[in-house]
Amino acid sequence: MSDALEKAEAAAREAAVDTAAVQIALAAVELAKVAAAQQQPAAPACEHHHKKGRSAGEWLGIACAVCVGGVGVAFASLALAILGGVAAIVVLVLRDMWRDMQRKGR
Q1: What does the alpha-carbon distance between residue 77 and residue 83 come to, in Å, rounded to a whole number?
Q2: Which of 21, 42, 57, 79 has the fewest CB atoms below 10 angstroms from its CB?
Q3: Hey, what's the torsion of the CAs at 57, 58, 64, 65, to 10 degrees?
Q4: Distance, CA of 2 to CA of 8 (rounded, Å)
């Protein structure tokens, strides 16, 4: 009977040790869960949707459009300057012709 009693006591001790080991393991798992939760980034505070930025191709297209527009404005300015010069020459010639007609008419 003492043999059975000793076996029961050994089993009880082993169960107590196993219970403590299980409790330590569970505590370690909980600690790992808490550490993982703290490492995750917080959700953004705003709830609106952010617009995606422009790609490099879009910026290149915008730059080309601005360059072409700038060249167009330069040519238009040059054309206006030439037109103004021609108009001034025509006015001077017509004024000179008018004066000649007025002198010859007397």
Answers
A1: 10
A2: 42
A3: 160
A4: 10
